[in-house]
Amino acid sequence: MNLRSLRFRLVLWYALWLGTVFLGTGALLYFAVGQYLEGNLARSQMSRANRVAALVGRLGEVSSNQLRMEITADFAPEASGRFIRVSQPTGTVLYQSGEPADQSFDPSQISPPAGPGVRREKLAGGPEMMLVTVATAATGGMGYRVEAGEALTPALTELHRLLLSLVLGFVMVTIVALAGGYVLVGRALQPVTDITRRAEGITSRHLSERLPVAPTGDEFQHLCEALNRMIARLDEAFQHNRRFLADASHELRTPLTILRGEMEAVVQRRELDPAVQETMNNLLEEVQRLARIVENLFALSRLEAGLASPVATRFDLARLASTTAEQMCLVAEDKGVKITCQTPQPVMVEGDPGRFKQVIVNLLDNAIKYTPAGGAITLAVREQDHKAVCEVADNGIGIPADALPRVFERFFRVDETRNRESGGAGIGLAIVKAICTAHNGHVEVNSTAGSGSCFRVCLPLSAQT
Asked: Per-residue confidence at 405, pLDDT binned at 50, 70, 90?
């Protein structure tokens, strides 16, 4: 699980918030129940103390034995596990109940009363907590203090059971909240997953596609509609750029052709001054170079617009690579570079053989330009992972790592060693990528500066047998 994902964070915050609410509610409930149990017990003991005080007031001055008999007969404190004590303000104890039958506390450890009211008392040598109430009585001009008490153990036991239930409930609620929150958040974020999946398939060649819009009326619908409007604007901008590039390239072809023809005619004049002729030759070379750039831009614009994809033809890529390598050997020999072709078996693909030949020529030409004399170039075609793979590897100057992501951009040159003096305009690799994309393939490069480069073209195999 991705701990930084929106789903995890929402589930975590949901669980924390629910847990905090549960803990707060549980603490409030625990406190309220504790207060209720203690208050109820205090009221009960005060009522008992008042009844004993009424009994003392009714009996008047009697002996301690008679008072014991009356209180035992009416209240039976030892049998019920309660405490009763009757004393005078001077501290003389007239009656004190004995040790209860369950021996839960020792009455002799309960301190004398300080005054009327309710008090908690912790008995020494044991865990018992007593709740003692004090009432007053008067008879025959004499005042009496009546204490009635009972152990808090039963009430605390119930309170501890409640606490245990709250803890178990908190654990169960947390587990259910995490599981339920994970499912609910996953369902709530499902539109984001669908949007991401569809958005990843929208490229510059598929800007006509749009994101799915569910008529829910929520934020996701508004987001999809806004993204679709943005994609529509991008599509319009790309279409305008492609039309401009295609139109400009097309319009430049005719004047460049005329200009090249006129300059070739001027260069061929014998009476022309040698200095002027040399200047005209230089200008003619630049015009020819400009014409090649325009032709490449025109071809690139048609490829990217999907207008240069004729009916696919099934052909042997290995054989095409072999014949192309033989033709390029002459160029390589002039540079002192050796080309080795490795095509052990036929590799059938579908597409435009002319375009694929252009791919191989561009890659080989690129390798020849940037491989020094005495270097070697290997052209290999094979089947790999149910795909047709064409590799052009050299041991030339290589490409720096920071330049690899941009080698297929238009007019991009790595450094000053790759300039127009070597004949490149920075469009060849862009055309290679456009041709591969138009045939549902892709091209990639691996290179190390000073150790050579390897361009790999991967294409779908022919579906025919």
From this structure: confident
Look up residue 412 and give its two tokens: 């991009």
The strand pairing partners of 348, in sequence order, are 316
Going by C-alpha positions, the residue among 347, 446, 329, 438 that lies closest to residue 390 is 347
- Compute the average pLDDT of residues 165-174: 86
Specify the fold of 219-304. Helix Hairpins (1.10.287)
Say yes or no to pLDDT of 168 above 60: yes
Number of Cβ atoms within 10 Å of the Cβ of 381: 26
What pLDDT digit, counting tens, does each position of 224-245 carry?
A: 888 888 888 888 877 777 677 6
The arithmetic mean of pLDDT across residues 435-464, rounded, is 88
Q: What is the CA radius of gyration of the chain?
A: 49
Q: How many helices (H) and strands (E) does the chain have?
A: 10, 12
Identical topology for domains 6-158 and 219-304? no
Q: Is the pTM of this model over 0.85?
A: no
* Mean predicted confidence (pLDDT) in 366-376: 90
Distance CA 427, CA 392 (A): 18
For all residues of the chain together, what is the average pLDDT?
82
| Dihedral, 219, 221, 222, 226 alpha carbons, nearest 10 | 140
The amino acid at 343: T
Closest by alpha carbon to 441, among 464, 456, 463, 459? 459
**Angle, alpha carbons 171-176-177 (nearest 5°):** 95
Topology of domain 6-158 in CATH is Beta-Lactamase (3.30.450)
Per cent of the chain over pLDDT 90 is 14
Hey, which bits of 123-267 come out as E strands? 129-139, 142-151
String of DSSP letters for 291-329 = HHHHHHHHHHHHHHTT-S----EEEEHHHHHHHHHHHHH
Q: Where are the domains of the chain?
A: 6-158, 219-304, 313-460
The span from the CA of 310 to the CA of 303, in Å, is: 11
Yes or no: domain 313-460 corresponds to CATH 3.30.565.10? yes
Look up residue 340 and give its amino acid: T
* pLDDT at residue 377 greater than cutoff 90: yes
Q: Cβ neighbours of residue 279 under 8 Å, at least 6 residues apart?
A: none
Angle at which helices 219-267 and 274-304 pack, to 10 degrees?
Answer: 150
CA distance 291 to 285: 10
